[in-house]
Write a structure and sequence with these properties.
Blueprint lengths: L2 H22 L1 H12 L8 H34 L10 H26 L15 H18 L1 H11 L3
Helix pairs in contact: 1-3, 4-5, 4-6
């Protein structure tokens, strides 16, 4: 992989990560919206809706701009002749993917006990209390998949860089 290809893949992954973070923030925003309805006056403040609507709009615009930058970098790579001496080999790609997976596994394992610390102190569970442990379990699963499924991820990254 050339450095421009690595940059393009990194930009696309950053755009995907930002989009996922934006989508994951939506339940929090809806819970905040419900809590503001109980404020004195009963109406949801227009400033609150404007603030969160602006947050979503700026986030979506950032995802779009980052995706355009990745496409632009890939278009410039297609024009240039690839230099085989600067390309990463399959073993190097697999090692980088596994290192990323190990980072996810370690960070999820470090945060999972804190996410489950409330369990002995709660008599009944609400669905929103299980979202943080579920997110940590998802991160752990994705990390394990990155470590174990390098062939799949190499193929996905090849498709992301349009090869």
């Amino acid at each position: 992989m050339l450095s421009k290809q690595i940059t393009a893949v990194a930009l696309r992954l950053l755009a995907l990560w930002l989009l996922v973070k934006l989508i994951l923030s939506l339940p929090t925003l809806s819970l905040l919206l419900q809590s503001t309805e109980t404020l004195p006056g009963g109406d949801t403040p227009a400033l609150f809706l404007l603030y969160h609507g602006g947050f979503l709009l700026v986030g979506l615009l950032a995802v779009w701009a980052i995706s355009r930058a990745a496409r632009s970098a890939l278009a410039r790579v297609g024009e240039a002749a690839p230099d085989e001496t600067t390309a990463l080999g399959r073993r190097d790609q697999a090692l980088l993917i596994q290192l990323l997976g190990l980072y996810f596994v370690v960070s999820a394992l470090a945060a999972l006990p804190n996410a489950l610390a409330f369990v002995p102190y709660v008599e009944t569970f609400a669905w929103h209390q299980l979202l943080r442990p579920a997110g940590q379990a998802l991160q752990l699963g994705m990390g394990l998949w990155l470590v174990a499924g390098t062939v799949f991820w190499r193929g996905l990254f090849s498709r992301l860089r349009s090869r």
